[in-house]
Design brief:
Radius of gyration: 29 Å
Number of strands: 28
CATH superfamily of one domain: tricorn interacting facor f3 domain
Mean pLDDT: 89
Number of helices: 31
Catalytic activity: Release of N-terminal glutamate (and to a lesser extent aspartate) from a peptide
Shape: globular
Largest sheet: 7 strands, mixed
Low-confidence stretches: 1-81
Strand order of the largest sheet: 4-7-2-1-10-13-12
Helix content: 40-55%
Subunit structure: Homodimer; disulfide-linked.
Structural class: alpha+beta
CATH topology of one domain: Immunoglobulin-like
GO biological process, one term: peptide catabolic process
Pfam families: ERAP1_C (PF11838), Peptidase_M1 (PF01433), Peptidase_M1_N (PF17900)
Family: Belongs to the peptidase M1 family.
Bound molecules: 2-acetamido-2-deoxy-beta-D-glucopyranose, zinc ion
CATH class of one domain: Mainly Beta
Strand content: 15-25%
Length: 966
């Protein structure tokens, strides 16, 4: 059947096409022929299976020690280190995967035949599986004169490494083999990783079951035995079985090529998908559902057209149009930017009712949480539009960066995630230039990760990982957000034209293969006309923890810059010899002055004591880190801060939005770290009375509300609130609660930001209006809901300010019957806002029931209750007494469980709380993927305690001199 496969040429680029030429013929042939060849394959595969001797090997649990024993007693030339990594000498080339989920029973049956290339003589093959029952195994020679089956010894399971070993009786020679398994497993409904089932209610209130998958990073092994590491790329031919009729269908990475009704038995349909390009196992995807598609054509290179589709449940199709429109524009943007075509014949997006992360970039079949993808112009807020756009633009960036070229190992995850997290703004800004996305980048990515990275508990972007818990744990802010921030900095100092040219070369060079961080840096360096040593520069940012603050001292026309590591906690000590780079960075220093608005770039080398910038003529003012492109803070002397403050106060528009945002971010962070007097930071806020842009207000809101919460138990609390109320009052009246159709994106954003801030500092008018809108709605029998933009605020502050038990019960009812996932979350947060301990206790109990709150949303529910000051202690008590329930439900491997603790303890500020946390961690020492989160939580709380001790006096005296009594 198959033609000759040439032996692997060493180091050659390009994958081995033609290993399965039948499929190639199929691709070119018409549909009729497709089904014909396909059935032939099918029959052949049945014959094959029948010929295979069925070795039934039941569930063996042999410990790793036995494996070692066995291997050492076998006559193998190279016994591998028994480790989490598979031996490199057996490479998968092609998977024939057959999966038949039984949606009602919640189980699946599968078969896989893997074409492997054995590169050395050996007597065993190791690969991954977890929680599968392997019922049959066969190993056949492939493509020889006479093919034969090998005699195998019993399979050996190595649960610790999620591996198993297929030992052969006689030694295998190098060459190609077919390794086949039959197996079955459970569609695990609660785990929501691997191959799992999900359910939803349709328009007729019938429960509908679907099966779907989520494999990154190490869950493909739960669906089929495989070589589950990103560097083992192979082609895939997938067959899926779905119920016939009732709108059921199957989806996978590639397009369906052939559909056979009544296969494997009456009532079932088998779909065969086209053979894929070479890809990593974590990108494979299988869906059996009754979803329906909305499709539009996108333009590829050379006038090629390909369909982009959004799959949703039947009732939600009209919510898919926004995502589809954006999807087409984004994929075309990337094709144009990278000058490399999207390589698959189709691109699907599917909105999944239960989904563990926001979205997953399965090649050709991107899966999303429903709430992240679907957009209803009538009921969704304008803020949600941003989320939909940026999640699509993130996932589509992976089609090249991650899928076409993949990190060799998870150590370099940041390259995938950092790049996609930067490109998600860049491409979205490209198609929606008036949405202010690059300013938004600062708050959502850089400022957010500055918080984490200013702690001793942070870690370098590049770090060693081996086991599944560690791999899961690096899907964190550092990989995503610090990654995106340093990539943005690099794009800027290399210059965009050169940068994207180099990215394109990198993608072309490693197409269908894997690469490491060093490979990208090398290409960037070769492309850079300024002969920058990109590797040497970037290593200081990616291989050590943290980031610098640059201190500026002025003397005459000279500015003398020095650098030191920035830490949020002023008392934190570190040993600079811990870092290979001594916690010094090679910093691209940029600046603008009153003379030049175009930034000048100069390099501050990590080994230099200081950097001196001298002007021939004096300058009135200078601002470093133009547009906050660099991943560092800047501190000036008080006199310079005064000058900058005056610029803001009198002509804030001289500076860009990003520069204003940068000032607010830095003054508060520096003050909080005792690098700057709080008075200077507070002085800076006075300019906000003139500020009309959403993003500076957004930074101010997060800084001011954080102080507000920390001060809440002190005597300064009410004065502080009053100060903020005065600041926000003018702009509050300007934006108001009425949302107009003609408001632009930035005004819409400004409104919600300002209302949130005003309500949170108890602006009387703001709360009163929220309460009135809330009561009108809750008593309205027609249930006409507030405008989507202000809806969450009305639910939250309305309930908080004016809600009682009766209203809460009405809202709970609305929440229970709500089918729209976004609206449901808003109602859930509203329920969490009531100022009643006993109702909040009831709410937690209700929320543990899947019929009320989906498992995926339970953490958000707990965090929402905990964000309500009345709920904070309740949630803390509940989590501590129900920890085992949480671990059973989600596993210690779950990153959302890991991040629960820091989320609910972030505002603790007493020794008592700190002790409670420590004894809780001592009681449950195994933190799994949450170990770093625990350290982070403890550090946050002790910082809070110190913060109060250090700053509450100081702020009190500033408030006394700036806020009149009444
Ligand atoms: C695996 O097989 C065992 C024994 O036959 C059975 O008890 C178990 O439920 C099976 N597990 C799955 C996931 O099918
Ligand atoms: C849907 O069915 C559930 C019980 O399965 C019932 O409680 C609910 O009222 C039904 N909803 C509608 C809209 O028919
Ligand atoms: C770049 O810097 C690294 C480390 O500092 C050094 O080993 C390497 O030789 C440099 N490369 C070039 C091209 O200068
Ligand atoms: C910038 O400030 C310097 C010093 O005050 C002044 O001499 C110069 O004219 C200013 N430049 C502009 C463009 O205003
Ligand atoms: Zn991603």
């Amino acid at each position: 059947m198959a033609t000759k496969v040439s032996k692997r040429s060493s180091g050659g680029a390009g994958y081995r096409a033609g290993a399965f030429p039948t499929t190639k013929t199929q691709l070119q042939a018409g549909t009729g022929l497709l089904c014909f060849t396909c059935s032939v394959c099918f029959i052949l595969s049945i014959i094959c299976t029948c010929l295979a001797t069925l070795l039934v090997l039941v569930d063996q649990k042999v410990e790793a020690a036995n494996y070692q024993y066995l291997l050492t007693t076998m006559n193998t030339e190279s016994v591998p280190d028994l480790s989490f990594r598979l031996p490199k000498e057996v490479k998968p080339l092609h998977y024939d995967v057959y999966l038949h989920p039984d949606l009602e029973k919640g189980t699946f049956q599968g078969k896989v035949t893997i074409l492997i290339d054995v590169l050395n003589r050996r007597s065993y093959i190791a690969l991954h599986q977890k929680d599968l029952n392997i019922t049959s195994t066969a190993l056949n020679t492939y493509d020889r004169e006479e093919n034969f089956e090998f005699e195998l010894l019993d399979l050996i399971q190595i649960p610790k490494y999620e591996m198993f070993v297929v030992p052969t009786k006689n030694e295998l020679h190098t060459g190609l083999y077919h390794l086949s398994f039959e197996f079955n497993g459970a569609l695990q409904p609660d785990k929501i990783v691997g191959f799992y089932s999900s359910k939803y209610k349709d328009a007729q209130n019938r429960t509908r079951y679907i099966a779907t998958s989520k494999f990154e990073p190490t869950y493909a092994r739960r669906a089929y035995p495989c070589f589950d590491e990103p560097a083992f790329k192979a082609e895939f031919t997938v067959k899926l079985v779905h119920p016939t009729g009732d709108n059921y269908g199957a989806l996978s990475n590639m397009n369906a090529e052939c559909t056979q009704i009544n296969q494997p038995s009456p009532g079932l349909t088998t779909v065969t998908f086209a053979k894929s390009v070479p890809m990593s196992t974590y990108l494979s995807c299988f869906i059996v559902s009754d979803f329906i598609a909305l499709t539009q054509m996108a333009k590829g290179l050379n006038d090629r057209q390909f369909p982009v589709s959004v799959y949703t449940t039947r009732t939600q199709q009209d919510k898919a149009t926004f995502a589809l429109d954006i999807g087409v524009k984004i994929i075309e943007y990337y094709i144009d930017l990278f000058r490399i075509d999207y390589p698959l014949p189709k691109l699907d997006m599917a909105a999944i009712p239960d989904f563990v992360s926001g979205a997953m970039e399965n090649w050709g079949l991107v899966t999303y949480r429903e709430a992240r993808l679907l957009y209803d112009k009538k009921t969704d807020s304008s803020a949600k539009g941003y989320d939909v756009v940026t999640v699509i633009s993130h996932e589509f960036a992976h089609m090249w960066f991650g899928n076409l070229v993949t990190m060799s190992w998870w150590n370099d995850l940041w390259l995938n995630e950092g790049f996609a997290s930067f490109m998600q703004y860049k491409s979205a800004d490209g198609i929606l230039p008036d949405w202010g996305l690059m300013d938004l980048f600062l708050i959502e990515q850089m400022h957010s990760v500055f918080v984490t990275d200013a702690k001793l508990s942070s870690h370098p972007i590049v770090q060693t990982v081996s086991n599944p818990d560690e791999i899961t744990a690096i899907f964190d802010e550092i990989s995503y957000k610090k990654g995106s921030s340093v990539i943005r900095m690099m794009e800027n100092f290399i210059k965009p034209e050169v940068f994207y040219g180099a990215i394109s070369s990198y993608l072309n060079k490693f197409i269908y293969h894997n690469a490491e961080t060093a490979d990208l840096f090398k290409i960037l360096q070769e492309s850079s006309p300024d002969s920058l040593n990109v590797t040497a520069i970037m290593d200081t940012w990616t291989r050590q923890t943290g980031f610098p603050v640059v201190n500026v001292k002025k003397s005459g026309n000279k500015y003398v810059l020095t650098q030191k590591r920035f830490l949020a906690n002023p008392d934190a000590h570190f040993d600079s010899s811990e870092s290979e780079y001594g916690y010094k960075w090679t910093i691209p220093i940029t600046y603008i002055t009153n003379n030049t608005s175009k930034p000048t770039l100069v390099w501050f080398d990590k080994d230099a004591k200081d950097l001196v910038i001298e002007f021939k003529e004096p300058v009135n003012w200078i601002k470093f880190n133009a547009d906050e492109v660099g991943y560092y803070r800047v501190n000036y002397e008080p006199t310079e801060w005064d000058i900058l403050y005056n610029i803001l106060r009198h002509q804030h528009k001289t500076l860009s939005v990003s520069d204003r945002v940068h000032f607010l971010e830095d003054v508060f962070s520096l003050a909080s770290a005792s690098e700057l007097d709080y008075g200077i930071a507070m002085n800076m806020t006075a300019y906000l009375k003139q500020e009309k842009h959403a993003i500076p207000w957004s930074v101010a809101t997060s800084k001011l509300t954080a102080i507000d919460t920390l001060l809440s138990s002190t005597i300064s609390s009410s004065k502080f609130k009053k100060y903020v109320r005065d600041l926000v009052n003018d702009v509050y009246h300007e934006v108001g609660w009425h949302v107009s159709d003609t408001d632009d994106r930035i005004s819409l954003k400004l409104r919600t930001t300002v209302l949130r801030l005003a309500c949170s500092v108890e602006h009387a008018k703001c709360l009163k209006e929220a309460g009135e809108i809330f009561k009108n709605w809750i008593q309205d029998p027609r249930d006409i809901r507030p405008h989507p933009d202000i809806r969450d605020l009305v639910y939250y502050y309305g309930m908080h300010h004016a809600g009682d038990e009766a209203m809460w019960r009405i809202m709970l009812k609305k929440f229970t019957v709500e089918t729209d996932s976004t609206e449901k979350l808003k109602l859930m947060r509203g329920l969490a806002a009531i100022r009643s301990t006993w109702i909040l206790n009831i709410f937690i109990t209700v929320a543990t029931d899947e019929n009320y709150v989906r498992a995926q949303d339970f953490f958000s529910c707990l965090i929402a209750i905990s964000d309500n000051p009345v709920g904070t202690p309740i949630v803390w008590d509940w989590v501590r007494s129900n920890w085992e329930f949480l671990v059973n439900r989600y596993t210690l491997n779950d990153r959302y469980l890991g991040s629960l603790i820091p989320s609910i303890t972030k505002m603790f500020a007493t020794e008592t709380k700190l002790n409670e946390m420590e004894s809780f961690f001592a009681r449950y020492p195994d933190a799994g993927a949450g170990a770093m989160n625990r350290a982070k939580a403890l550090e946050t709380v002790s910082n809070n305690i110190k913060w109060l001790a250090k700053n509450s006096r100081n702020l009190e005296s500033w408030l006394n001199s700036h806020v009149q009594n009444n």
